[in-house]
Amino acid sequence: MGEVLSALAEGLDVAAAARVFGHSEATISAWLTRAGQHANRLHARLFRQLHLPHVQLDEIRTRLRPRGRVLWLWLAMDPLSKIVPVVHLGPRTQQAAHAVIHALRAALAPACVPAVTSDGLRLYFYALTAHFGLWVGLGRRRRWQVTPALLYGQVQKCYRRRRLVRIRYRVPCGGRTTLRAALQALGLSGRLNTAFVERLSLTVRQGVAALTRRTWSTAQSATHLRLHLEWWRGYYHFVRPHQGLRVARARPRPRDGRCLPQRYQRRTPAMAAGVTTHCWSPLEFLAHPCAPALT
Length: 295
Description:
10 helices
């Protein structure tokens, strides 16, 4: 079962997995459903009280098989630890944007206000300013005040005949100098961009067959696609090492045979976030006990 689910998280669809491993499509779909449900509970349990100094937001367009129904996959990513605290599947509306930022706010520590960057979608601005702030005043004079610590920048890409012709940078919350200094303090270049979450979007498309462009492996229902995404996120966080997160060893680790000593330690996003201390196997992930999330 672990090999089958690993293949599904590496871009193989259910029909192809049935041909490769010899199991029926119903059996593989049942495994994927249970794995997605377990991954959802495990993320709700472990990814809480997070301290994320920087978050990038993006959305991916996809469709379902019945009548070509269009959905949008909303992603929130921490460029430092590479974790994905929020995955939301739904329409591209203000309500969905509020749901994404609400889930992000629930996963963060109460005092954590990250620096946020996204594309030029205006829905993010209204959702961010509605969730990061507090009420001031008494009685009828109460008003909502956005926290001064919120830094938010947008990268607006202008296309003409499907070609990128111009890029505009806007900072609706906070100053551009303050945002640049905050990003440089994290070890980044300080330039306003969404490069990390755009790379994640490509990784998701390669890992989930239903999200691949111009594919016949579209999902039958939004529920099935959501569970597949939850399993992919668990595999991405705990099982699959990330090349950009490796750290140099103090002493190279010798290996058998003629292999060169291992100079770097591989790490997963969950290791970089401090959730675990080692790379998990798929079976270890599926067998991990998951108690109800604390409230």
